[in-house]
């Protein structure tokens, strides 16, 4: 494992200045020194992903009715959300269906940090290596990788507002995963939520771990029908929402 980590560290990222400053709790839990927050719940980040982002968007169920399903995410971080989604997708997909997962990330982690974080979930490691070896290729242009014959990962290395605003596609489901709203206001601004709404298909959805009042109001005023539902672990609430079909409410 150490050899693999050293190898990935040696590759580095395309621009040393972009490296996200981290410290580590318990050896494998990344903490952002830049934002003063953890990347995910300390109480099993993978279970949080499954509850908040997959179940919160009614996945895997909604995959059944789409030949092509587009997920978009604010904040790629360690890639844990992507890896757990890819794992569940591999279990539930039908032959011929395609999943596109696009994530907007301004301060990417390097490959060694991703592998160190994901080592907490040994069954995700094979896929983590397949994903992490592409990370050194990240540049400002969107990088799209076909990770298996039915799964494409695209990372847009940009400020979220700029990245989503110029994105030529729409999502069926959004994972809103900035750091805590009071520490990372840009990731929850009304302008960004308007862009998220504009880049959501009719009947498309979002899910997020936060239930902060001002975030809920930004999402509502952008046009989403928002619901507060039980959160993961010690979090009492989280938010989900749907874009009503044009010309009606859901
Ligand atoms: C809570 S972490 C995401 C965790 C991630 N989804 C995972 O599975 O590990 C938030 C991420 O948002 C990124 N971020 C913060 N502000 C941003 C901005 N304005 N635009 C784009 N990305 C941003 C951070 O670099 C960080 O990787």
Fold and architecture overview:
This protein has helices spanning 2-11, 45-54, 80-92, 111-118, 125-132, 160-165, 190-198, 213-222; strands at 22-25, 29-32, 37-38, 68-74, 98-105, 143-148, 151-157, 171-176, 200-208, 225-230, 237-242. It has a single domain, classed as Vaccinia Virus protein VP39 (Rossmann fold). It has an eight-stranded mixed beta sheet with strand order 6-7-5-4-8-9-11-10, with helices on both faces. The chain has a three-stranded antiparallel beta sheet with strand order 1-2-3, covered by helices on one side. It is built from eight helices and eleven strands. The chain is α/β, with parallel strands linked by helices. Strand 10 (225-230) and strand 11 (237-242) form a beta hairpin. Helix 1 (2-11) packs antiparallel against helix 4. 40% of the residues are buried. Helix content is 30%, strand content 26%.
Mind sketching the topology for me?
Elements (H helix, E strand, L loop, with lengths): L1 H10 L10 E4 L3 E4 L4 E2 L6 H10 L13 E7 L5 H13 L5 E8 L5 H8 L6 H8 L10 E6 L2 E7 L2 H6 L5 E6 L13 H9 L1 E9 L4 H10 L2 E6 L6 E6 L8
Parallel strand pairs: 4-5, 4-8, 5-7, 8-9
Antiparallel strand pairs: 1-2, 2-3, 6-7, 9-11, 10-11
Helix pairs in contact: 1-4, 2-3, 4-5, 7-8
Bound molecules: S-adenosylmethionine.
């Amino acid at each position: 494992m150490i050899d693999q980590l050293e190898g990935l560290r040696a590759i580095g990222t395309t621009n040393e200045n972009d490296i996200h400053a981290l410290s580590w709790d318990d050896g494998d839990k990344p903490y952002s020194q830049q934002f003063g927050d953890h990347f995910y719940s300390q109480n099993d980040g993978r279970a949080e992903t499954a509850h908040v982002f997959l179940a919160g968007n009614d996945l895997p169920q909604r995959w059944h009715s789409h030949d092509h399903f587009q997920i978009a995410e604010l904040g790629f971080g360690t890639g844990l959300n992507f890896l757990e989604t890819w794992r569940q997708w591999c279990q539930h997909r039908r032959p011929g269906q395609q999943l596109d997962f696009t994530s907007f990330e301004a301060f990417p982690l390097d490959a060694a940090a991703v592998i160190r974080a994901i080592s907490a979930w040994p069954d995700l490691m094979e896929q983590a290596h397949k994903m992490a070896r592409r990370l050194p290729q990240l540049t400002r242009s969107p990088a799209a990788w076909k990770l298996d014959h039915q799964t494409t990962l695209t990372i847009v290395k940009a400020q979220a507002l700029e990245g989503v605003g110029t994105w030529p596609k729409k999502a069926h489901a959004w994972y809103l995963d900035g750091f805590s709203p009071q520490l990372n206001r840009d990731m929850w601004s009304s302008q960004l939520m308007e862009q998220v709404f504009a880049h959501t298909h009719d009947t498309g959805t979002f899910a997020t771990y936060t239930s902060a009042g001002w975030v809920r109001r930004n999402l509502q005023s952008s046009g989403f029908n928002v619901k507060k539902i039980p959160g993961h672990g010690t979090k009492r609430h989280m938010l989900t929402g749907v874009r009503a079909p044009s010309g009606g409410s859901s």
